Amino acid sequence: MYGIGAWADKISQGLDTELSLARLRRKHTLEQRVAGRTVLITGASSGIGRAAAVRVGAAGAKVALLARRESELRDVAQEIEQAGGKAFVYPCDLNDFEALDSAAERVLVEHDGVDILVNNAGRSIRRIVAESYDRFHDYERTMRLNYFAATRLVLAVLPGMRERRDGQIVNVLSVANLAGGPGYGAYLASKAALDTLTTTLQAETLTENIRFSSVYMPLVQTPMTAANPHFRDRGLTPADAARAVCDAIIDRPRRIAPAIGRLMALIETVSPETADSSRNAHFNAHFVKGR
């Protein structure tokens, strides 16, 4: 039987294989999608956000970089500009809604709108419910960043997109939003809220050439996952994950997800009891055993 880390690797490898096949059938390039356009990326100072910013910058986008750490954002901007791209730094704590609204307004004014928004910034908390009874603030803070901050940005950029009848919003979610993820209730609930909202907004804007794309990301190698010995050096690299984000920009699909995530979502629909049993077995094997 595979350990949790090995399963994470298999899911990540599966997504990379699927996307490689999709790239063979591709009709557009990243340059065609982003050249001369303004792409706003949150969480752009490190990890997936930084790697995606560098990639779209090299493809000719005007990249608006949004994150808390100004010095790191300037490093990203310098990397993009040294490669011939254009980058603009907007230091902002997304948990501070007043500061977020101000930064969003600056981006809109200085660039005459946003063509593509990548909601990448996020907070993840690994804590089972038995350890969460007195930690309601975990749910508040994940919802504040992962859902409310992202929603404020969507509401800020969407009017201009609708007026121009063109635009895209890419949400970086988790494969566990499809397959389930015991131990990550606060995190997954916040990501699910964003996904459900944008499903509704897509229905309202579909004929206006607005596209919402959800990327159900498998495990990605970050400082957060490195803290868990099961996940250290497992999954996609930030560069691999950024390529998946760019795949979403190029192809503008409604969803990008590993096959196992789509399979679990189907099982959930057909037989939720079966899906619950599978998740409970995972929980008992990796959270209860050895406690």
Task: Please write out the topology.
Blueprint: H1 4-24, H2 30-34, E1 38-42, H3 47-58, E2 62-67, H4 70-82, E3 86-91, H5 97-111, E4 116-119, H6 136-164, E5 167-174, H7 176-179, H8 185-205, E6 210-217, H9 223-226, H10 238-251, E7 255-256, H11 259-270, H12 272-288
Parallel strand pairs: 1-2, 1-4, 2-3, 4-5, 5-6, 6-7
Helix pairs in contact: 3-4, 3-10, 5-6, 6-8, 11-12
Structure report:
By secondary structure, the protein is an alpha/beta fold. It has twelve helices and seven strands. Strand 1, helix 3 (47-58) and strand 2 (62-67) form a beta-alpha-beta unit. Residues 1-7 have low confidence and may be disordered.
